[in-house]
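Run: sequence + adenosine-5'-triphosphate -> complex structure.
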Amino acid sequence: MRQSFQVIAVALLTAALIGCASAPAARSKREPRTLALLNSLMDISEAESGSMRLQLEPVALRRLIEEVVDLYEYSAEDAQVSVSVTGQDAVTLMADRTRLRQVLANLLDNAIKYSRPGGSIVIDIAQNGERTVISFKDDGMGIAPEEISKVWDRIYSGDKSRSQPGLGLGLSIVRAVVRAHGGEVDVSSTPGSGSIFSISFLRHLATT
Ligand SMILES: Nc1ncnc2c1ncn2[C@@H]1O[C@H](COP(=O)(O)OP(=O)(O)OP(=O)(O)O)[C@@H](O)[C@H]1O
Ligand SMILES: [Mg+2]
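>> structure
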């Protein structure tokens, strides 16, 4: 909790300093990015401290995933990757729809961003024993073993030479929001072959 506020304080200070030192034109270009950074840090802090207010409602998983896939249609086209959804289509999860959409969007954004032209992404919905599991499988560049434990850290962006520009906050938000729902996150990856990011929720939160 204290660490969260320290991160926010540092970010605010940095933003203020950047603001003071910049020419007006440069500042106005940077402002949306600074604001996005601050909003994301606040989200993470809220979710991690347990103060994020979740508006739980029954969410039809497949429909929400397809909504997010539609949102990313043009990005996927630009990156020349295909996106498909497989698995169970009658799973309902008690979740905060807006927050869950944010989680799904971040995972799809990454799968597209770190893919390669001609690649394919599969989003799967499965019931695995006690858990409902949503996995994002890509056949993109993958993650080195020494980096894999760091990808959930705040403001961690992988090797800049291979990374697209980002704030390095997407996966921290994913983990914080999933945990706020009582769920878990997981990742496995083979460099050069691709990655699988998955989120899972206890089955008592879901009905089929
Ligand atoms: N599907 C993936 N394939 C390969 N590397 C990935 C994948 N998803 C995440 N990563 C690595 O994990 C790092 C952290 O991801 P995260 O989503 O938190 O930040 P980002 O994508 O760099 O920025 P942001 O999401 O804030 O725009 C990325 O910079 C990238 O190196
Ligand atoms: Mg990201």
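>> summary
Residues 16-20 have pLDDT under 50 and may be disordered. The radius of gyration is 18 Å.
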